[in-house]
Amino acid sequence: MTPQTNLPVRSAGPYIPSTVESQRGGQLFDHVCVYLSTSSRIPGRLVESGILLSEIFLLNIPEWLFGMRKEGRPPIEKRLASSIAASRMAIEQDVSAGERRKVVVQTGKSIAATEAGIRAVENIKVQSKNPNVEFIYLDLGSFQEIRKFSEEVNRRTNVVDLLVNNAGVMDVPTFKPTAEGHDSQFGINYLGHYFLTTLLLPLIKLAPKARIVMTASSAHYGTSKIGYKGITSAKAYDRINNYCGSKLATVMYTRFLAKTLRETHPNITVNCLHPGACRTNLFSSSWLLYTLTTIGFQVLLRPASRGARGLTYLCLSEEVEGISGEFWFDERIRQKNPASQDAKQQQELIDYSNKQIGF
Ligand SMILES: NC(=O)c1ccc[n+]([C@@H]2O[C@H](COP(=O)([O-])OP(=O)(O)OC[C@H]3O[C@@H](n4cnc5c(N)ncnc54)[C@H](OP(=O)(O)O)[C@@H]3O)[C@@H](O)[C@H]2O)c1
């Protein structure tokens, strides 16, 4: 498969999202998402379930009925045992076959999460037959913890070849601040990863070839601008807008970083993706989504390993070599929300982010 990079040129005007290649309801899916998430007449909970249902019916059910698309799919899953839940973050050293390989997996903040992380590391060691896998604790909801993590990475290695910014929370019902007072959806999904990437960039720049992969979402189509007020104000907080905003910020940052590095460090590529509606713990904050995904639609959601396939594709596939700044879904480049390409909005986001992290 040759990834399509010639995105259609868009003229200024109303935002009409479309996929690069129309397939399996792609265009329709984008329209449904945007329609649902921008209509103020539809209550929030219906929006959430509407987006989930549209995704399941337009994408997962056809796949479920007609089987997986075989064409062009590299056997990456055989090379890296992974699931979205397990591949919270991987930093690899000397990825080329047979050489010493190091993978660092991070996890959340509780002791249980740490234990789960250590178990995940043991699992990866067995499945990948690679003993050089290590666990380092990271809480993306605290700048101090992110700094500690980065110092620890610096202590353990002198080069980073691959950084995966995958952790996330979704649909947190009320304003739940991070250590620095940002809404946890924006704070963890975007700002924490922004800070982490900034701190690790010096090590990434030392790699002969490096990739940065970020997990965004189709939810980034759901808003055309980032609601900065709702990031630090409980009053202005909107659970759906803030999640969509955190993912729009991720796509914007992908574009910005790719553009910046293209000039100075063409050895580094930056891409982001939507993994599809997957059966993971992501929906546990919302009772409606939790009920739908645990009782109603369990069987119709993708397994986490299916979602992780897109992630591992961007991390390892030779087909992605040299491609940077794109939004992917199911191993294909997709049309981004045009707001993510707006240079003014990108600069506003970077200025805001630098101010928050004190740079
Ligand atoms: N599932 C879907 O349908 C779907 C669709 C679109 C996009 N996504 C995106 O996919 C990514 C992975 O989500 P998932 O579906 O795999 O959900 P998940 O099962 O809930 O996994 C989320 C991961 O994020 C970690 N995390 C949460 N808060 C953290 C923090 N403060 N510091 C460090 N790590 C933290 C969690 O670690 P602990 O469990 O250890 O706390 C967990 O490993 C997210 O960015 C999500 O937005 C998922």
Q: How would you portray this structure in words?
A:
The structure is a single chain. This protein is of the alpha/beta class. It has a domain at 26-78 and 161-357: 3-Layer(aba) Sandwich (Rossmann fold), CATH 3.40.50. Helices cover 45% and strands 10% of the residues. The protein has helices at 26-38, 44-66, 76-79, 111-128, 143-156, 184-205, 229-232, 239-264, 287-296, 304-316, 343-357, and strands at residues 91-93, 102-105, 133-135, 162-165, 210-215, 268-274, 278-279, 302-303, 327-329, 332-334. The strands form three sheets. Strands 4-5-6-9-10 form a five-stranded mixed beta sheet, sandwiched between helices. It has a three-stranded mixed beta sheet with strand order 1-2-3, with helices on one face. The longest helix has 26 residues, at 239-264. The N and C termini lie far apart (41 Å). Residues 1-39 and 69-102 have low confidence and may be disordered. NADP nicotinamide-adenine-dinucleotide phosphate is lined by residues 84-85, 88, 107-109, 113, 116, 138-141, 166-170, 188-189, 215, 217, 274-275, 277-278, 280-282. Belongs to the short-chain dehydrogenases/reductases (SDR) family. It holds the Pfam family adh_short.
